[in-house]
């Protein structure tokens, strides 16, 4: 048993088993703490997390560096300093798409190596296990936010907006990441196959990334893609941040849309986990 497993079990197994209803706060804290330890004790994961934003800006963002600003303004339907300024909110929003895959893989690992079985025989509810995994994945994804902002500054991007707007933008990314983490975990709740999270992630991530306002404005899309974009939470998180960066304006209804998505995924996922989260 590794250090993360021992630290979690110190929290959760000590709860009394004689009561039919056990307060879950201590259980949740231990499991969430374990998820955080697994992330920040893995230098490779941290290195890749830091490198990816720079790679997005250096390779994808720079692909438009020779396009005149007048043409970019017409293409993107807004006035910008560079495509990087338009891209950063979209990259941060799309990065929240894939974080749920890592939570799913972590859950399958726990099933395969016996940790999940040890936890589920304690008074810890399946909903607590599920929500701790989802929040742990979300926290892992939030590491990329300050890194992306620093990368943008390094590439000469200027930012607008006040502290309240930036706090709202960060909240929208947290909610988006939490919502997708809940969705991925619900889909893979009953699985023990290592390949399942990757296959599902590829199937979901690509259409949601390109059928959103993250990389290009939806006004350029064909009608059927505009319909998908109008229901895509990635669009609202990207547009919320883009309004702050470009114009110093925040459309708070976008934050509300993302919050509804996160709440719906958490509610559905909790019900799914309570029924289907198991160890074969």
Order of helices and strands: HHHHHHHHHHHHH
Low-confidence stretches: 14-20
Straight-line N-to-C gap: 20 Å
What does the main sheet amount to?
none
The number of helical runs is 13
Cα-atom radius of gyration: 20 Å
Mean pLDDT: 82
SS content category: mainly alpha
Count of strand segments:
0
Strand content: under 5%
Helix share, percent: over 70%
Q: Please, how many domains?
A: 1
Shape: elongated
Provide structural commentary:
Helix 5 packs antiparallel against helix 10 (195-210). The chain has one domain. It starts with a helix and ends with a helix. It has helices spanning 3-12, 25-40, 43-60, 69-76, 83-112, 115-120, 126-142, 144-154, 163-187, 195-210, 223-231, 233-247, 252-276. It is an all-alpha fold.
Describe the structure concisely for a colleague:
With 280 residues, the chain is mainly alpha-helical. It is 74% helix and 0% strand.
For the structure shown, list the relevant keywords.
280 residues, mainly alpha, 74% helix
Give the topology, please.
Layout: H1 3-12, H2 25-40, H3 43-60, H4 69-76, H5 83-112, H6 115-120, H7 126-142, H8 144-154, H9 163-187, H10 195-210, H11 223-231, H12 233-247, H13 252-276
Helix pairs in contact: 1-2, 2-7, 3-8, 5-7, 5-8, 5-9, 5-10, 5-12, 7-9, 7-13, 9-12, 9-13, 12-13
